[in-house]
Amino acid sequence: MTIDDLAGSGSVVCHRERISGFEREHDRAKHMLPTATSDSNSIAVFVTMRNGVVYFHSNRKSSLDPANVVKIATNETTDLKTLLLNVLPEAEQTETTLDRLHKSTKYVLDTSVFDPDSSTSLDLEGAENVWIVTADSFTPRKALRVERARGPPSWCYRRGGRGSLRSARAGSLSP
Prior knowledge:
Elements: E1 11-14, H1 23-32, E2 44-50, E3 53-61, E4 69-74, H2 80-85, H3 95-104, E5 106-110, E6 130-133, E7 141-146, E8 154-158, E9 165-167
């Protein structure tokens, strides 16, 4: 399946080397995520979006082909918890396990998943280990959720150790 096949509505859960059409995202994820693992307690995920399609690349070894990690491309859901469920082996697909792993999984979000106001259509509810990576870097930075009086929360990160806050999508928030 390729990105063109997802033009209408669809999802692919990939247990092979890569999803055709997502080679650039695949290569970037390999440089950013920890080594592949069979331990679900050590899952990390790189998430990006292109043309309305969410690309979800985990470091969790596939239970069908342990030489590869599980990857998902979808335009049907933006719920990270649901996507994480599809990465887990069947024996770990319980509500209790999923809730625990969703909190601890390291989600590395590319700036492409954010709107100009730094909000996102991704459902991050319950995720506690969220990081942001910019297009010009392979170094994720801890994400900070900013609640607003109206509308969805926005996201930002600190540039450098004690540097200024940067919005997830736009420029600096503070000097």
